[in-house]
Dihydroorotase, mitochondrial (Cephalotus follicularis), 346 residues
Amino acid sequence: MELTITRPDDWHLHLRDGHLLQAVVSHSANHFGRGIVMPNLKPPITTTSAAVAYRETILKAVPASSDFTPLMTLYLTDTTTPQEIKLARKSGVIFAVKLYPAGATTNSQDGVTDLFGKCLPVLEEMVEQNMPLLVHGEVTDPSVDVFDREKVFIDTVLQPLIQRLPQLKVVMEHITTMDAARFVESCKEGTVAATVTPQHLVLNRNALFQGGLQPHNYCLPILKREIHRQAIVSSVTSGNKRFFLGTDSAPHERRGKECSCGCAGIYNAPVALSLYAKVFEEAGALDKLEAFTSFNGPDFYGLPRNKSKIKLTKNLWRVPESFAFSLGEIIPMFAGETLEWQASFI
Ligand SMILES: NC(=O)N[C@@H](CC(=O)O)C(=O)O
Ligand SMILES: [Zn+2]
Ligand SMILES: [Zn+2]
């Protein structure tokens, strides 16, 4: 079996910098037309000038054979100014602002401590500039169970935010629960949307402990119960325009994952399209795959859809065990396993 679809984009991607960037960028550039690049570097990308410089670095690392376009984001902090949002919009290369609640995930220590207390003027300016807010939707209160953090975030931050600023464009990134899927479905189309990762469509939380601790399945928000996975699959495969592809591909050097305090993030760029295709096929919804991978995202962001195509072929292939690079190696999701769908340029 073979499918030809409009070239997809990745609306949530970590490309890192330095040697790691060099090692991973081609895996995204080989399949995707554009990527919304996350700003959680060390130090984070908090200014327009840093984002412009980071974009140049990425473009230099993209293989010459690819016209992959990085779409940049700004990392929101307690001290981001409305002026910075104006500058970001004027730059023409920054497409969104990213909210990391301080302490919620990898490199989020400089994130926001009090969204309503510290960031309202910035959020109001974002409405003016039609600049979307991308949210890592988890509260960080240590008394809230890690499996409930997304739902509590919706109730205590997202819902009030949308009520207060109904015109703000918001993307709830990497949704993991039935609650998030239902919430996004209840919001106004074109104003609130969600990205969905391959791992939250194909794995449930058992995958963290299958045969022993599985650090390469550890990401945030953490994998949830099977009922949540099923709810997300049905929302995504229903063809609802509010959901689109965002891999959250988040490479870490192997030693950073396989240690006594391993970091969160799954490197899925090499397998993402293969897994999305599998999910839609199993749901009997291959006819809806292209909208999810290639139409809903650009339509939400007000960007043109890609013109070129890619081919998805049902062809068994083996995921490499690892990708070696100058500082070590990166273990991809489903390392060493056999997958069914293979993506290629036309
Ligand atoms: N998803 C993750 O588990 N990790 C991401 C950060 C993020 O997207 O939350 C990373 O940067 O490694
Ligand atoms: Zn996140
Ligand atoms: Zn991410």
